[in-house]
Design brief:
Blueprint: E1 3-6, H1 12-20, E2 25-29, H2 40-47, E3 55-60, H3 65-75, E4 79-82, H4 88-91, E5 99-103, H5 108-113, E6 121-124, H6 141-148, E7 153-155, H7 164-171, E8 175-178, E9 183-185, E10 188-189, H8 191-204
Parallel strand pairs: 1-2, 1-8, 2-3, 3-4, 4-5, 5-6, 6-7, 7-8
Antiparallel strand pairs: 9-10
Length: 227
């Protein structure tokens, strides 16, 4: 089953709606330059009010390792999404089973270096100069399909109700990460858009398996370092 993460959650209403319509995970962005930034305190308040089955993902960009660990513990996060320029050595400071690493454009050398990252999954997103995600633009699907051959991966980047079916059928990701495609404005989700895209995803996803990359029962890949 394709996992679904609704990212850029900033309020309890949107968190409730995403959970109600079947999202597997919610993403909370702790990057001060993001239009969807949220404080750890507000995140904790939201987390305490949503179903325990929802996986909570913290999104960080080139943050101090100690700060990441403090926020993860304070909020009660399940997964850490590193959305910046973090190195394999940086990633090795965390448990592999908790890590998602974001990549965008990728040379052949960079592709080969992905095996050095001790992470649970690779997330493919679009990036513009000085902007780490949230661009609303499609990511490199050709790169995503290449990564799919070797690693568990999550597809992000401009996914919405118009292109999600094609994305799933073309790229066949382990999971999708939806953000701007279900918003009325940055950080404000549209419940109708969430419901619509979830219906399309579930109708398109032909895998009847019960596991998801966001499931606590989903094993980490046997590559990279860490435990």
């Amino acid at each position: 089953m394709i996992g679904v993460k609704i990212c850029g959650i900033t309020n309890i209403r949107d968190a409730y709606r995403a959970a109600e319509f079947g999202a597997d995970a919610l993403g909370f962005i702790f990057y001060s330059k993001s239009q969807r930034v949220i404080t750890p305190e507000r995140t904790k308040e939201i987390i305490q009010k949503i179903p325990g089955s929802i996986r909570r993902v913290g999104v960080f960009v080139n943050e101090e390792i100690g700060t990441v660990k403090e926020i993860v513990d304070f909020c009660g996060l399940h997964l850490i999404q590193l959305h910046g320029d973090e190195s394999p050595q940086y990633c090795a400071q965390f448990r592999r089973s908790t890590l998602i690493k974001t990549v965008s454009v990728c040379t052949e050398k960079e592709f080969q270096e992905l095996e050095n990252y001790p992470v649970k999954a690779i997330l493919v997103d679009a990036r513009e100069p000085g902007c780490y995600g949230g661009t609303g633009k499609n990511s490199d699907w050709a790169l995503a399909m290449k990564i799919r051959e070797k690693y568990p991966f999550i597809l992000a980047g401009g996914l919405n109700k118009e292109n999600i079916k094609k994305a799933i059928e073309t790229v066949r990701p382990c999971a999708v990460d939806v953000n701007s495609g279900v918003e009325t404005s940055p950080g404000k989700k549209d419940p109708c858009k969430i419901r619509e895209i979830m219906e399309i995803i579930r109708a398109t996803d032909k895998d009847e398996g019960s596991g998801s990359i966001f499931s606590p029962l989903c094993p980490s890949p046997q590559w990279g370092r860490g435990a």
